[in-house]
Fold this protein.
Amino acid sequence: MDTPKISDSTRELKINLNWSPNLKNVTMLNSHKMNELYDLGDIRVETKNLRFLCNQFVHSYIFEVVIEDGVGLSCCYFTSDRDKNKKIFFITVEVLVHILNLVGNDYPSKLKITRDSKTGELLTGVL
């Protein structure tokens, strides 16, 4: 996410993430009991950008994959240490593969570098 190897438009991609609300306190000792901790039947949707999704994966407190008989990997459940007592997100493998393909095939054609007049810091924009 911090490299100029993907375009700004990909970096700011909006993703509709499904989530379910928390029911009770999540700890290291019960984090594997998702059915007890979250109302998985109550599915809500929230729009986030790609950076948020990456941060959730990197900082996940819970990261579980669902493997269905005859289907294989179907979705991933995840939540960060900050959000664990609020909600758990999930994303289908189809959406995840679409995102990975988009990032993997993003070849920016222009790089714009400017200097912040106050701080002197270099700022990049990738098109």
Remarks:
- The two ends are 14 Å apart (CA to CA).
